[in-house]
Amino acid sequence: METLDRYLAQLAAPEPTPGGGSAATVVAATGAALIGMVARICAANPKYAEQRELAERIAASTDALRKELVTARERDEAAFSRVVSAQTLPKGSEAEVAARRRTMDAALAGAAAEPLRAAALARDVLHFAAQLLAIPNKHLASDVGCAAEFGYAALAACAYNVRVNHKFMRDTEAIAPQAKLLARYEEEGASLLATVRRSVNEALMR
User: Fold this and answer.
1) Domains detected in the chain
2) Which pTM value belongs to this model?
């Protein structure tokens, strides 16, 4: 199994993959893991017996979400690797240029679709962080806040990676719906983050 240290070493290496899109999924997965931790601690505490079912549901959901984000990391790396491979194709003749362009267009479309999918998962991290607010455990408020910040940071990072691929795509019909969906995720994420920040800051006031 790959260690965190090995992954970070790969991220720091002078290679195009893994890159920002991959790192974004790791950040989001960290947020999901934190939510699972908070939910399980609350579920085991008799003080929050009334919220036990909610806590257990959140823990199970974020376990599944974390696994999805691990898969999203692999998919993002594979998609960007296809872009890198397309860049190496020959372009000496008109036929080669046309073939290279077709391959590049397909690779870019995939490289935009994967971080868009990951953006939705990062938005879900924020969704579950907001759900945790129904469990008034002030001792873990900072962890909920951290999870939400990680989710939003990952969402913002995914958005950068969607848009950098849009910049080089030629299929405007493919770009438009992706851009619209991304804007929706960003709007929802910002609203959820504001809600969590407000609640966490209130809980942390002396």
Assistant:
1) 17-204 (1.20.120.680)
2) 0.94
